[in-house]
Amino acid sequence: MKKEDTVKLISAEGFEFVIDKEAAMVSQTIRNMLTSPGSFAETEHGEVTFPEISTTILEKICQYFYWSLQYSRGKETDFHIEPELTLELMMAANYLHT
Amino acid sequence: MVAFEERSLFMSSLEEIKIVFSFSVCDQMEPPDEIVIAMYIRVKRSKATYFIQCDPTETILDIKQKLHVLIDQPVNDQRLILMGTGEVLEDSKTLADQKVENDAIVALTLRKDDNEFEDIDIVKPNDFYQSRDADGGSW
């Protein structure tokens, strides 16, 4: 495990989530940021700030990334979403292409 | 190839939104390797959360070594505490031994200058949903 293989996602309230790049790339938006040459300065430092995404939602999204990786490799479990998070989570998912 | 339906759980209740997503999910998810991620834990301190991939057979020391890479703190200056039980996790034991499961939250505390460990410090977000719950959750 290397530090360069992780990325830090920062929520609207400034909370930080350090996750594997592999997990972050479940999001097409983040994948584009991390792979397009030189166009996103912040990704050179491995940090992406999401001023529109609240901490609760961003953590749920990170959990989803890992769930998605596990699921894609054959581990079939449910992903629980609290009903009150659903709308905001969908808006974030739309933004992140997740 | 991952079936589209598997990836769209966020949208399960709103059919029309699926259309927006459908073209983005098809050609991206080739797994870089075939290692199955057995589990991950969420290590929290202050406003930071570290998602650490691990296996139930790994020891707490293994986890601390992974954290060392991320936070530049020597393993001897780290203490991990399983939230929920409040149990301090021992270096020599495995995750399975101490019933640390997938998605578990583990508090990280660091050794202070006086050689003692700091108290657990996990900041919780004070967002819309929690403040609404605090108001009694009217709907």
Could you provide a short overview of the structure?
By secondary structure, chain A is α+β, with helices and mostly antiparallel strands.
Describe this structure as you would to a colleague.
The complex is a heterodimer of chains A (98) and B (139). Chain A has 98 residues and is an alpha+beta fold. Chain A has one domain (3-93): 2-Layer Sandwich (Potassium Channel Kv1.1, Chain A), CATH 3.30.710.10. Chain A has five helices and three strands. The model of chain A has no long low-confidence stretch (mean pLDDT 90). With 139 residues, chain B is α+β, with helices and mostly antiparallel strands. Chain B has two domains: 1-30, no CATH class; 33-139, Phosphatidylinositol 3-kinase Catalytic Subunit, Chain A, domain 1 (Ubiquitin-like (UB roll), Roll). Chain B is 22% helix and 20% strand. Chain B has helices at residues 4-7, 15-22, 60-71, 128-134; strands at 39-45, 48-54, 78-82, 87-88, 104-110. The longest helix of chain B is centred in the middle third of the chain and has 12 residues, at 60-71. The N and C termini of chain B lie far apart (40 Å). Residues 13-27 and 129-139 of chain B have low confidence and may be disordered. The chains are: A alpha+beta (98), B alpha+beta (139). The A-B interface holds A 1-3, 6, 11, 13-20, 22-23, 25-26, 28, 31, 54-56, 59, 62-64, 66, 68-75, 79, 81, 84-86, 89-90, 93-94, 97-98 and B 2, 6-7, 9-11, 13-14, 17, 20-21, 24-25, 28-29, 31-32, 34, 36-37, 40, 42, 47-51, 53, 66, 69-70, 103, 123, 125-130, 132.
